[in-house]
């Protein structure tokens, strides 16, 4: 088993061979942070004083250019290490403005190493001279999975700076749980084929039905990229079926049945079954998108959003909620759970729906932010919506009281520095908390769109959104989009 290659070894060897700057891909956030911590305590890795001063000036210029909270940046636990070593940790657990700072300094050539999870490969566009891959798999909500060929190409494709390098270098530094042979196999695979992410979600169907009838909707779906791919694949199945049918016609059942080994009859039945299976598969693919539309319409009709071939009264106002949570929010509003609640309590309810069950948030067993009866009502509504068989409907949604508590603590905090100290004490990642809060603000923004039909709710949602989107959250997003 390989030992983990420490960041000091990686940096010193790359520096010796003039292969900096580099992006080092790690499996977890904790590994990225540990690398920065180790580097900060290693005198051999410190930048010369003039390089530290140059990096510090660049950071100050970036802070001014993006109007960042300078105190928030300087108070970051990795700020000193960044200045002293030119090494930064980039992952989803960091605040967006910190990641932006690292991306800008890396693009300027001021950093020596950016230690990152796969967020860099998939989400931003800046190269390095060298990429170091230390694992063949990534960790997700469902455990570890090998990199796809596309994921590996995204990582390795960061190697080589246009206009600065004639060649880029991708180096494998296998750790204790990395199989270099697996990486070699992944590297030789072609990129994953283009696929369509479209499906007739409840939000999509509701919005389309505001301006089209059911027949128009079916026509639109029939012309989608997803339908094109389905029909193309169906054509391949039909071709395979035609080959088998021709084989049966040319050889004939009597010939197969008369074989001396007695297997002719079995062979004929096997080929016939396979041919029929291919035919059924082709038929299912050709009608799959329209079948999902019918399934979505049936579910929407069951919940009262569609009446006949058009939207019901509830369907019309719910169509303003452009979110994957449209049915849940619609049912919560219809049930009266949000009637008469304060802006603060409304934000807490949205926070309980906005979180990821796999992430850690602030919690306090002694404090119940949400009323017990409201939690029971919300869970009952989520279960009822989840039980409706519709494309994209998630049956595993839950009410996260820790999400509600985290939102409430942010509303009560004077600033992010104060809130950050609470997060650090509870070992909650800033990035996770920030994502929860911005998602909560987005749900509130959707509610604010209901000013024509739910005026009071819209007003309180607007107020709650305003209170949540304070710096640094308001610094990292375009408020015009919310």
Question: What layout of secondary structure does this protein have?
Answer:
Layout: H1 7-16, E1 22-25, H2 29-40, H3 49-65, H4 70-74, H5 79-85, E2 87-90, H6 96-107, E3 113-116, H7 119-123, E4 130-133, E5 137-140, E6 143-146, H8 149-156, E7 169-172, H9 180-187, H10 202-209, H11 214-222, H12 225-251, H13 253-257, H14 264-302, E8 306-307, E9 310-311, H15 313-318, H16 326-334, H17 343-354, H18 372-387, H19 401-412, H20 416-426, H21 430-448, H22 455-468
Helix pairs in contact: 2-5, 12-14, 16-18, 17-19, 17-21, 17-22, 19-21, 21-22
Task: Provide a concise account of the structure shown.
It contains 22 helices and 9 strands.
Structure description:
- There is one protein chain.
- This protein is an alpha/beta fold.
- It has 22 helices and nine strands.
- The chain has a five-stranded parallel beta sheet with strand order 2-3-1-4-7, with helices on both faces. The protein has a two-stranded antiparallel sheet with strand order 5-6. It has a two-stranded antiparallel ribbon with strand order 8-9.
- A hairpin with a 2-residue loop joins strand 5 and strand 6.
- Helix 12 packs antiparallel against helix 14 (264-302).
Tell me the number of helical segments per DSSP (H or I, 4 or more residues long).
22
Helix content: 55-70%
How are the strands ordered across the major sheet?
A: 2-3-1-4-7
Biggest sheet architecture: 5 strands, parallel
Q: Indicate the overall shape.
A: flat
Structural class: alpha/beta
Q: What's the average pLDDT?
A: 88
Q: Alpha-carbon distance between the termini?
A: 50 Å
Q: Radius of gyration, rounded? A: 28 Å
β-strand percent reads 5-15%
Say how many strands there are.
Answer: 9
Q: Which spans of ≥5 residues are poorly predicted at pLDDT below 50? A: 255-263, 478-482
């Amino acid at each position: 088993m390989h030992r983990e290659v420490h960041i000091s070894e990686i940096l010193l060897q790359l520096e010796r061979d003039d292969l900096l700057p580099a992006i080092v891909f790690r499996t977890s956030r904790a590994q990225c942070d540990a690398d920065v911590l180790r580097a900060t305590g290693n005198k051999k890795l410190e930048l010369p004083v003039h390089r530290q001063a140059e990096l510090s000036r660049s950071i100050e210029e970036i802070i001014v250019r993006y109007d960042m909270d300078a105190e928030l940046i300087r108070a970051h636990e990795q700020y000193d290490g960044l200045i002293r070593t030119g090494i930064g940790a980039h992952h989803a657990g960091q605040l967006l403005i910190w990641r932006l700072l690292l991306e800008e300094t890396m693009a300027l050539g001021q950093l020596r190493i950016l230690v990152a999870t796969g967020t860099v490969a998939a989400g931003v566009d800046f190269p390095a001279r060298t990429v170091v891959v230390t694992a063949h798999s990534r960790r997700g909500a469902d455990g570890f999975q090998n990199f796809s060929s596309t994921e590996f190409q995204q990582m390795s494709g960061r190697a080589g700076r246009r206009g600065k390098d004639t060649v880029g270098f991708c180096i494998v530094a296998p750790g204790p749980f990395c199989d270099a042979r697996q990486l070699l196999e992944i590297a030789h695979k072609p990129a994953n084929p283009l696929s369509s992410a479209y499906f007739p979600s409840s939000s999509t169907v509701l919005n389309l039905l505001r301006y089209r009838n059911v027949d128009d909707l079916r026509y639109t779906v029939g012309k989608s990229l997803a339908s094109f791919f389905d029909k193309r694949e169906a054509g391949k199945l039909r071709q395979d079926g035609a080959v088998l049918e021709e084989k049966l016609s040319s050889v004939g059942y009597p010939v197969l049945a008369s074989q001396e080994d007695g297997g002719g009859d079995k062979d004929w039945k096997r080929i016939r079954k396979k041919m029929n299976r291919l035919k059924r598969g082709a038929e299912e693919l050709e009608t799959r998108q329209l079948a999902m539309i019918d399934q979505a319409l049936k579910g929407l009709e069951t919940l009262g959003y569609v009446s006949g071939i058009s939207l019901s009264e509830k369907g019309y106002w719910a169509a303003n909620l452009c979110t994957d949570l449209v049915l849940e929010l619609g049912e919560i509003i219809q049930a009266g759970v949000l009637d008469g609640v304060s802006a603060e309590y409304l934000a807490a309810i949205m926070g309980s729906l906005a979180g990821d069950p796999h992430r850690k948030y602030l919690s306090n067993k002694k404090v119940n932010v949400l009323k017990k009866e409201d939690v029971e009502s919300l869970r009952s509504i989520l279960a009822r919506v989840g039980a409706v068989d519709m494309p994209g409907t998630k049956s595993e949604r839950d009410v996260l009281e820790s999400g509600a508590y985290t939102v409430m603590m942010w509303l009560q905090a004077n600033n992010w520095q104060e809130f950050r100290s609470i997060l650090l004490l509870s070992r909650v990642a800033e990035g996770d908390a920030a994502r929860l809060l911005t998602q909560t603000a987005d749900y509130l923004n959707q509610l604010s769109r209901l000013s024509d039909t739910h005026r009071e709710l819209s007003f309180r949602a607007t107020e709650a959104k305003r209170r949540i989107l304070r710096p640094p959250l308001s610094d990292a997003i375009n408020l015009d989009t919310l």
